[in-house]
Amino acid sequence: MRVDLFDFDLPPERIALRPASPRDSARMLVVRPEGFEDRGVADLPAMLRAGDMLVFNDTRVIPAQLEGTRGEARIGATLHKREGPRDWRAFVRNAKRVRAGDRIDFGAGVTALAGDKGEDGSILLRFEGDEPVELLLERAGRMPLPPYIAGKREADARDAIDYQTMFAREKGAVAAPTAALHFTPVLMNALEAAGIGHATLTLHVGAGTFLPVKAEDTDAHRMHSEWGRIDAATADRLNAVRAEGGRVIAVGTTALRLLESAAGEDGLIRPFEGDTAIFITPGYRFRAIDGLVTNFHLPRSTLFMLVGALMGRETMQAAYAHAIAEGYRFYSYGDASLLLPER
């Protein structure tokens, strides 16, 4: 499909630079085939049914933004995807000043050797020393805010808390699964009281999630890959929910992408561990999920294509136009939407 079919105009003031406080006070646009409904995240228990299951991504964001030097050149690096115990792919600012074998000094005693360049423009970084890379990043790194926020303000101490979900446990993401940022213990208790369960899986979100689609047609776009895992017990629970008439509602596009990667043509979710580069566009037949909680996404992005595949492109264009007109806040720290397709 033509990528320009997924374009829309977003006023810059609609981009949220801080999350709602408390988190579950954010607004929520409910989108069904028959129309839209303006609600709040706190209304979610009333919008779902007893027996439904929410699925969260329990990945934890690491301090993946680094600033360093190679000689006199200033180098910025955003880690993208782990490739070994000490090896990370990174998108590098001022990459033309970096060659294979160069040592980059990130300060605080943290150095890395540059390796080969990937097809996506990333550079392989091998961190030196014996300390676990996680400890090195805690010393030298900072929270990797999305470019549409980082371009307007610096990351600060608040972001170390604001940019982690309450489910964050498995270290490895360089971007948050932001739909889950809206959830609080109070909201989870209300969902449980309404008979709505929850499960977790792990998908380490990469910086590739923010890469623009440069191709003119979706067939020419190469999707980034990310590592994820669903264990057998979780797969069995989700299959049982659907067998008993409940719905599996993914919280975030990352959870959705992993669930769909783990599902067979028969709709059954199976244990999964490895990379996925699934690219969902209109015409895709969803197998594993019955709904989605997600934030509002960038124009011409793979994520806007995904929600267009779930609800219909014209429906989502209309929903986003409604959200813009009604003052909803967009992107990572913005408001939420609940997408319930007809099943």
UniProtKB/TrEMBL annotation:
Main subcellular localisation: cytoplasm
Q: Origin, by domain of life?
A: Bacteria
Q: Name one GO biological process term.
A: tRNA queuosine(34) biosynthetic process
Provide the GO MF annotations for this entry.
S-adenosylmethionine:tRNA ribosyltransferase-isomerase activity
Q: Please name one Pfam family that this protein belongs to.
A: Queuosine_synth
Broadest EC class assigned to this enzyme: transferase
UniProt pathway annotation: tRNA modification; tRNA-queuosine biosynthesis
Subunit comment: Monomer.
The record's HAMAP family line, in alphabetical order, gives: QueA
| PANTHER family assigned | S-ADENOSYLMETHIONINE:TRNA RIBOSYLTRANSFERASE-ISOMERASE
| Role description | Transfers and isomerizes the ribose moiety from AdoMet to the 7-aminomethyl group of 7-deazaguanine (preQ1-tRNA) to give epoxyqueuosine (oQ-tRNA).
Its protein name is: S-adenosylmethionine:tRNA ribosyltransferase-isomerase
Taxonomic lineage is: Bacteria, Pseudomonadati, Pseudomonadota, Alphaproteobacteria, Sphingomonadales
Q: Which gene encodes it?
A: queA
